[in-house]
Amino acid sequence: MIKITKFGGSSLANAQQFQKVKHIIESDPARRFVVVSAVGRANKHDNKVTDLLYLCHAHMQYHVDCSNVFQMIRDRYVQIRNDLHLKFPIERELDALWNQIKTSISLDELVSRGEYLTARLMAEYLGYAFVDAKDVIRFRYDGAIDFDFCEKSLQRVARNNQPFVMPGFYGSAPDGRIRVMTRGGSDITGSILAKCLHADLYENWTDVSGFLMADPRIVRNPRPIRKITYGELRELSYMGASVLHEDAIFPIRETNIPINILNTNEPDNPGTIILNEVTDDTKEDAIITGIAGKKDFTAIAIYKNHMSDAVGTVRKALSVFERYRISIEHIPSGIDSFSIVVATKDIKDIIYDILNDIRKEIEPDQIKISDEIALISTVGRHMSAHPGISGRLFAAIGKNNINIRMIAQGSDEINIIVGVENKDFEKTISVIYNDFIQGEELQ
Fold it and tell me: Would you say 357 and 320 are in contact if contact means Cβ atoms under 8 Å apart?
């Protein structure tokens, strides 16, 4: 069995966390291939190394001395090396990096050094080989991952069956220059490794024990999610339930390699398993999988008589938003009207320009704007098998005197989205959770 294990920055924040990681790795011989993030935050007053590296670059851009910031990075790595009694010459690596900072270094290469240095220390600590991501992870010119190159390279490295540690977050461009992924990209690196080595399981170790059915800041002690499909995860992640980088699911979704979200600080907790399909559901499973949402959306409602008889009206309105490069969240529609829902922050400075262009394009009879809207998504693969779920959800919300401003449901019937006023955001999530989860527990 092959398990890919990826550890996030909080799992690597100091020597004590390194020790936890080593215990986890040594407890299972299937954990032979390890991906690490950069050293993270040990407490809320601490700093992530990657943030400090970005700060160094910002100082460089404005010709401001960043030696104090870099000293913080140096101290973190030297302390971990010393506390673990390792021999890796971290000072030499840091001196070389400092010389590059003072002369010339790209942003991508600079911020990638957090993962690189963490992986060097972890490789020695585990007694594993070190594999540099720039040698095995390749981007195409369009920014996409070159999976053919990655698979050949990683298969070649793994051929001798020697365990290794690899830094996440970066790879190389076709010309050999280091290129980083988006923040949280180490999750993607682990997913690439799982796909290319045909792993049986991808373990993503972090500082939480998987996903919860609702935000614990809103719902007290929400139930953990033990199993979730990739589709459900995508819906919840998009609406703000963020534990795993959402792009991490794409490299392994087709192969149905499970992802297990686990807690380095509670290694015996089973966490959350993510699968393409969940085939062993039981009738005891909850109807809904989770609830998530975000505030601060604006709905632009467009009215035009006999719009249903015209062709291209919606397309013309959407082309306005496309010109301004505004992402559309939802498009609820009626016979002679439709609404375009967007994030308020994306349009607040150009709203009147957009309205003027819409009037020119489609000559509507009326336009209404509603802001301070929150979108809440109720997600569950079991909902389509239970008649009346939408009615039950709307009834629960209405019974608690919450006004629904918008309703949308996906064609795959795994989510129902309601729009409410910002002020009712937390109350709505609590109402839905109490009706579907606590209500079931009382039955």
Answer: yes
